[in-house]
Amino acid sequence: MNAAVAALVALGIGVIVVRRRSLATALVALQGLILGVTALSLEGGDSGTMVVAGVILLVRAAAIPVLLVLARRRTPERTLVAPTTSVATRLLLATAVVLVAVAATPPLGLGDRVAEHGSVALLCLGITTVAVRRPAILQVLGVLVAENGVYLLAIAVPGGVPAVVELGVLFDLVLVVTVAIAFAGKIHERVGSGDTDLLRGLRD
User: Fold this and answer.
1) Which of 58, 124, 154, 193 could pair with 101 in a Cys bridge, judged by C-beta atoms 3.0 to 4.6 Å apart?
2) pTM, whole model, 2 decimals?
3) Distance of alpha carbon 35 from its chain centroid, rounded?
């Protein structure tokens, strides 16, 4: 579990640092894969619940990146959207976010402090990604990173989360991602780019 949490956080940092949407999508897909495999490998509690959770996470890890790949193909960028901060700045920011999240997280009562720290770190990394990345697709990926933090917390709960809750969250997430992708497409159609900073210049 500790190695999985470390990998999830490292991938979350990667989403903030990398420039290409395709690479960031692959990192988030790998996060989902790790979450699914971790859920399937956990022992104790309701094993049936964990199997359902693992399968849902694996399906999610495959389905959502496919939606994002289709969105990228519909909204090609002539050039990479220039980030407002350097790679080094984003790396330092991501590292600081993780350290603060770990230091500020009180015991949540799960009995697994590493999972608790990792969940909060992913949540904060996702929010930071949405705040500092300009392309709309990368902002969607930030939401997914934060949601991965919620899923990590869910599979760390003793006995797991009921399958009906897992299915409900998956449905809601797919709906949100679909709407966000449609919104990103409209931005691209209107301004010729997925750079959300260009929306500042729009007027009625």
Assistant:
1) 124
2) 0.74
3) 11
